[in-house]
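_Backbone structure tokens_
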Amino acid sequence: MATLDRLRFRQKLVFEGTKTIAPAELMKRLKTLHAELAEMDQEKVDVRSLDSVTRSLISSTLLEHKDNGVQIHTACCLADIMRLYAPEAPYDEEELRTIFEFFLSQLAHLAQSNSDYFQLYFYLLESLSNVKSVVLVVDLNHPEQLVTEFFRLFFDIIRPDQSRNLQLYMVDVLHQLVEETPTVPQEVVDIILAQFLKKRQTANPTAYQLACDLCNAATDRLQKYICQYFTDVIVNAGKASSGSTSGSSGDPHFTADQLSEFKTAHYLIKELNRACPGLLLNVIPQLEEELTLDAVQLRTLATSVLGDMIAERGHALVRRYPTAWKAWIQRKADKNHAVRALWVELAIHLYRAQPQLGRELNEAIHAKVTDPDEKVRLAVARGLAQLDLDTLTYSPLDPEILVQLGHRCRDKKSSPRQEAIKALSHIFDLAYPSLETRDPIAVARFGWIPSVLFNTFYANDLDTLVMVERALTETVFQPSATLTDEQRTRRLLIVVALLDDRARKAFMGFLNRQLNTSREMNLFLDLCEKYNAAEDPQGADGQGVLNNLNYVIRLITSKLPDARKHADHLLSFAKMHDVRLHKMIRDAMSPQLGHKAIRKSQREAVKRLESLSPTLADTFTILIRRVSLTVVNRSTITETAGTGAAGSDTASAAQWTPAKLAETAHILLKHIATVFPEMYKSHVTELFALVRNDSATAGDDDTEQGQTASLKTVADFAKAFPTEVPTDRAIIQRLVQIALSDSVAPVAAKYAASVLAHADSPAATAAVTQILDQLVPNLAPIGSDADAEVLRPCWAHLKVLGQFALFRSGQFAPYTDRVVSFVQQNFLRAELTTTANATPTVATPAATPVRPSRQRSRTVATSAAAIDRANAALPVLKLLDSWITPVPTTTSAADAPTDPEPVSTPNPVRSFRRLTAAQCLLKLATQDRYESLLGSQHVERLSGVVQDPCYPVRLSYTTKLIGYLNSLRIPHRFLASLFLVAPDTEAAIKLTVRSFVKRQLQAPNMRDRFATLYETTITRLIHLLAHRPDYDETSAALNALSRYIDFYLDLVANDDNVSLIFHMAAQLKTVTDRSTMPPNPTSAAQTLKASQPIYVLSDMAQYLIQEKCHAHQWTLLSYPGSDRPPRDLFVPIENDEVLSQIAKRSFLPPDFTRDRSGVSHNHHYHHSSGGTGGGASATPRRGAGTGPGLRGEVTRQRKSASRTAAAAGSESEASGSDGEGDSDAETGRRKRRRPRRRPSDASERGFGRSKMARAAEGMTTPSRRNAPRRAKADGEVRYHQSSDSDSNVEED
């Protein structure tokens, strides 16, 4: 048997009594003892030899010694004794408690890594870990305090600068305590979880790592305690959820402390999932249960936590907890919008964090894009904007979701609309590098975005307009100021190349709006300077300038949201008189400056304005951005022209090949020349080089289009700056060559002639004479069977002659007779014959069999009117008038136009000819000298084109008519024909008219200048209906005609103007139809017979107006004004007896009122003395409104009507909701405007001169005249709605 080692140390460590050992000697003895004990092997030591030092080491003299060295050496010796005696300790329970408390006091010094005894402290910790003597703590009675102190101490003293071994020993010691203790104290759990709080992680990240290591090492042991912690929190929350509630929502009421505790607990769950997910084995099912609690706060927290956990652990978590995943997915339909919005953000994030789960989310995200609540739709837009390009391109994200996001650009609510616009522009910016390289996936997924953004302009919403303008100018076109001119221009061309036809028109409108706003801004700045330069601002001159200034301000703010606020800002700006700021703004919108100069002026103007008056910054940031030429400018011209010249290869289906970009460049250059011709002043040489270098030939469509675009650009420049056209011989001769050529496109020849016609130089004059001398004598007769090749050069030459007739009339005069004779012999009197048996009914421009005849029609329509303004006008008008009627519609032989064509003329030719003739008549109507030749019968026949059997004809004509009306170029007597689209089966036409009318009614400028235009138009509409070929006085026929008036009322009528509309309809019974009135009527019968259709329709209109008032609970009052039907259509009745007979008689057939009453739930209508009849005894006064009357009926109905109206109003308020938001931002009730009176003679002619032009000339604008406020009179009638009636109004 081996001999056991015995302790050789024999010195005393303590003495009995008061005798002490000097600290230095004591330290020496303890060092000797520690060295010997450390060398001893546990298996080879005779523990009996240790008895003396074992008792001495626990002496209070050593444990409480003042010297730190003595204490730590004592602790190390005790640790060695524990090691040598293991597994049984040589101390009783109290002594062990004292020893471990002493150990804790020594281990606290581990925080001081620079201590002289640090290695001994480390030795002590190492011994506790390796020997596992710390587990003796759990054998003590009530060990919770000691165990807790170990945890608290270690988490307090651990530092980032400590060695990893030391940290691992700490983890081991704590792990032993967790594993061996019967019950982990709750305070220990709290200490561990506290390390996962964000504040603690930031303050001591090493303690956080210690907690992570401990939790991962003791996962199985700590699971139930962690679960119990969160169970207590969630159960308490559940009890509160089922307990007290507050407010009308029924949601549980939580105190601030409770909410804070809930948030902390859920945050800890999220952090534990990130660091040691094994601890949450039983916690995640509790979160799943929490998703179904009534408390919104708890559902929100649970949704957030689970979403973040899924994003971090992804498929593993979903596979392990499938029911929790399904429960989380169901939060997409949570009853609370905040929970749904949060879920959307988290779900969209999963496309990037866990793409393998994306396919399961697509359907849900689809539904949330159109969620009824705007905050959810807003969350979708924000979430998608945060995705990176790879996720957007290659993840399982359904591309249709982005398309649906595009629809949100027209959302009814401003916030989701704005976020959708920002998101799409940001996504396009991310995708642009891929789009530039023609990545097919990127083109398919993101190429449509610019079109969607530009198409939002058609929503006609001012808020949306501002949002889109900002997105386009700051993100889509120029996201970075570091781009070169070449890069910026290429990006512009690529964006324009991506646009569809409708969006491209919107882009051109974007440039036009920039031009118009720039003009208005220049005029505004001029007036500001005049106002501040006035000697007496309060005098006549100053007030005149101020009136003009206020008008221009109204003009500018009519295109801005919150016009009143912006108007105040503009007026405040005008009074600032900062000349330097004025110059900055002018420079920002100068076509003569390049991009860098414009951007610099723009930034400096905004910065200076913010420093001078921050309150004005919002308004002028919008305006300066709108007028600054940052998209197209002088720098753009050079690069665009270079691209146009370089693109000579064949276009392919791929995007932005050189040919595609060249085509886009030509289109862009052409429009810039039209809108901003000043930009070309510094590029005249490059511009006209396009003419000198082109070499298009017949049949080559690509080069023909390029040549035409180039010539159009040059022609627009020459028209704007005649003196800037170069006189270079090569250029002039090239233009002459094009104008005389038989092989170029006719339109190209026209533009070449236009350049020469506008150029102000002797060389151009000589060139015009040369062309006339060669063309006119060689005009040869054309046979009726001429094909396209024969007709093409003749068509081109006539276009050339037309330009000279318009713009070089002096030079053209000697050739007039010869050209007129040629046109009359070869076109006006020639017979058309079909060149093919097929006669399609739609006017297709590409219909080859009828192309020669179709071109002949266009030639006459576009050229004949320009040849001789004095002598040829009437024949041309007669010819065009004969072409616009597919079938004669009048019974009068004198008025019926004669169709010179034989029946064999193909239908496509007739259709196209009608359209061309109608458009030409509209164009002639823009000139006063020709418009006066167009009588009411011409307007009637033109209105028939609105209902042409050929859809392209009526669509094109209606679009053209709206364009002329919108630009105020034709008289408003053409306006009534727009309402004839009422029965059209094609939604596009009705939508176009509806949008135009709504836009006009809401435009402040229109309502200021033509206050009652749309209200008085009902008289012209009734006149058109009375002269329709299908007019009949049967009930069925009148019901058909009522659709037009109903359509008119739906668009125009509202509570404020319905009295005026009713008044105008009633006034038609005080006049006769001028076109059918006998020369000298001698009896009432003659007058009645001549104008009976007018009276029938007047009664019907009044009936329909009252019907609408009943449906919408509008008040129909007597109109106080004196507006009269237009005198160009009607003649006032001077005979009082005739007037009385007409007023007393009801012209409506009984069947009509009976049928309508059945539809309208058999409600009663009451008519005043000027109404539809019904035995009214009074005679209406000429020029006055309808009489009061109905006092008895009013007395009986007034109280009932008031109660019903109030109840209906309450129901309306109670039933309001956000709605899904799928319609345009424009939808909703139309803004009510009171009609304003105007002199009756103002309605007889066109719109007159532009008020802006008068302001520019210094003329004082007339003040706005408002109609008197309507007071409740004795004749007031309120129509109330019965309980079962339907008052829905059709809206866009």
Summary: The two ends are 108 Å apart (CA to CA). Residues 588 and 597 are 8 Å apart (CA to CA). The first strand starts at residue 1071 and ends at 1073.
